[in-house]
Design a protein that fits this description.
This protein is an all-alpha fold and 107 residues long. It contains five helices and no strands. α1 crosses α5, α3 packs antiparallel against α4 and α4 packs antiparallel against α5. The protein starts with a helix and ends with a helix.
């Protein structure tokens, strides 16, 4: 049985949907009203990276530098996603990007 379509749907409609709603629609928009667009993208991206730290620590057991490096990479990815959301205000675009990104990591 080929699980690829199921995993793709899971990453888009569960993981990416929930995370992008939380980090872009809720958090980035709240930061934007308080601090402005660029600062909102940076702050939401940092929170996005830190949010992934517990998962990364379990992945890189005993390797704190690896998990911190991966956390930084995720925050940088969040900068790109956040900038795209700031420019387009298209929730579905960033959700699709995030879902495809995660799905490709699992291949």
């Amino acid at each position: 049985f080929n699980f690829q379509p199921l995993m793709f749907a899971y990453t888009i409609f569960f993981v990416a949907f929930i995370q992008e709603f939380l980090f872009r629609v809720v958090l980035q928009n709240a930061f934007e009203h308080r601090f402005g667009g660029k600062q909102a993208v940076i702050l939401a991206s940092l929170v996005f990276g830190v949010y992934h730290l517990p998962h990364l620590q379990s992945t890189y057991t005993g390797h704190s530098l690896n998990s911190l490096g991966a956390c930084l990479q995720i925050a940088v990815t969040g900068l790109g996603i956040g900038a795209c959301y700031l420019a387009t205000r298209n929730f579905w675009l960033v959700t699709l990007f995030h879902g495809v990104w995660d799905w490709k990591l699992w291949l």
